[in-house]
Specification:
By secondary structure, the chain is of the alpha/beta class. The protein is built from 17 helices and 15 strands. The protein folds into 3 domains: 118 residues, Rossmann fold (3-Layer(aba) Sandwich); 138 residues, STAS domain (Transcription Regulator spoIIAA), CATH 3.30.750.24; 135 residues, Rossmann fold. Strands 2-1-3-4-5 form a 5-stranded parallel sheet. A 5-stranded mixed sheet has the order 6-7-8-9-10, sandwiched between helices. The longest helix has 18 residues. The two termini are 32 Å apart.
Length: 425
């Protein structure tokens, strides 16, 4: 019996490359297609045992690919796994007759995908099942990587593609990396996974080792780094303030030491900068990102059907967010205080929340605390005029996804939304 074959039809080169690399470790042959037309040709010529098909395709739509597949008696019986970032239920029902066996929403839980592949192909796909949470996001020139519960080799592999995606989105040429490791005590048995983690980050971010700071309380991590010549320039710290402080000092050696630098930490990482000319009220800190415009077409595709909450007592901010997202067909629900929002959040789930810090009745920190206590999980972006380091650090410790300083511009809001919601995995 020959090896099973899988055809991946997806326009994200990151997703294709990751999945092909992962699946190729098992007893399967993997072919990839870059769009719908390419997928039809390769399906007809290769007759794979399974097709993994993304819903959002060009050259040929997903439905056109499925229709052509069904018209050909040689390909009609091939099972299909459908993937999508977002899909309307009615459109999904239209695709049911086309031998779709499973639908996965992106970001995909890879263990579930492997389980479905095992059922359909009769092959065991074993993967590292170590509990692990890895999240990555960007503020200014710093890539924040948060790791909790454990070190999972499969998720570390996935991290390299997320890093590449963030660097491309923000056009970062000289990244600074802050790795925050929490909720775990590591020992020598974790050495190989730590090596894989640091090697992966350095190789795929192209950052220098001295531009990588690690925030953790595990003494083993410090010993591990000091004992490896290739990692000795990595600094391991137990204070978030000093970790960020070190990255900013290295980023701009002209920043003075002491209190002045500490006061600038929140603004330097987490806000935009007013240009020296004063011609605009706000500008992104690094020029390459400021010049890079967002494709309104791509934002409309991501924004279609999104449900967004803006929690702010400032009517102007409410209107700014509503107008910004109206352009990409998203619905925005305004809430004038934290208590009103919490009542709504207990009944309805939002795809994204914009949250002010300073509000009457219940401030943003109280809202975050209540969301955590009630196990309500929604991605939160803080919009605030508060830029002091203490407030910024406190917000991140409370689990916010990003922090933007007022005043704001629509392009800035959309770019940060794209970072949070655009996930290839």
């Amino acid at each position: 019996m020959g090896r099973k074959t899988i055809l991946i039809i997806d326009e994200s080169d990151l997703f294709r490359d990751y999945l092909k690399g992962s699946l190729s470790e098992f007893a399967v042959e993997v072919e990839t297609a870059i769009n719908g037309l390419d997928g039809i040709v390769k399906m007809r010529n290769g007759l794979p045992d399974l097709v993994i098909l993304d819903y959002n395709l060009t050259r040929k739509s997903c439905k056109e690919v499925l229709e052509e597949k069904n018209r050909n008696p040689n390909t009609a019986s091939i099972p299909v796994i459908l993937t999508s970032q977002k899909i309307d239920k009615n459109r999904l029902l239209e695709l049911v007759p086309y031998n779709i066996k499973k639908v996965f929403m992106k970001p995909i839980k890879m263990d579930s995908l492997y389980g479905t592949l095992s059922e359909l192909l009769g092959i065991r796909f074993a993967m590292d099942e170590t509990p692990c949470i890895i999240e990555a996001h960007v503020n200014d020139n710093i890539v924040f990587i948060e790791i909790a519960k454990g070190l999972n080799r499969a998720k570390i592999d996935l991290l390299r593609f997320k890093i590449a995606e963030l660097l491309e989105l923000y056009q970062i040429r000289n990244p600074r990396i802050l790795v925050m490791i929490s909720d775990m005590e590591l020992s020598f048995v974790d050495g190989t996974n730590l090596e894989k983690l640091f090697t992966t980050i350095l190789a795929h971010s192209r950052a220098k080792a001295r531009h990588l700071k690690v925030l953790c309380v595990s003494p083993f991590v410090r010993e591990f780094v000091q004992g490896r010549p290739e990692f000795t320039d990595i600094e391991v710290l137990s204070s978030l303030k000093y970790a960020i402080d070190g990255l900013l000092t290295d980023y701009d050696p002209d920043v003075e030491m002491g209190a002045k630098k500490a006061e600038m930490i929140g603004e330097r990482i987490l806000s935009a900068q007013t240009p020296a000319s004063g011609s605009e009220s706000i500008e992104m800190r690094f020029d390459s990102e400021a010049r890079k415009t967002i494709s309104i077409e791509s934002m409309r595709e991501i924004g279609k059907g999104l449900s967004i909450a803006v929690v702010d007592d400032d009517f102007v901010i409410q209107e700014l967010v509503k107008t910004t997202f109206a352009a990409i067909n998203s619905s925005v629900t305004p809430h004038s205080n934290g208590r009103e929002f919490l009542e709504a959040a207990r009944l309805k789930s939002y795809d994204l929340v914009f949250l002010d810090i300073l509000m009457p009745e219940m401030d943003g920190f109280q809202v975050l605390s209540n969301l955590h206590a009630e196990d309500i999980d929604m991605p939160v972006i803080v919009l605030s005029a508060v830029s002091q380091r203490e407030a910024v650090v406190r917000a991140f410790q409370a689990g916010v996804k990003s922090y933007l300083i007022k005043p704001l511009k629509p392009d800035q809001i959309l770019k940060k939304t794209l970072e949070i919601l655009r996930a290839n995995f």
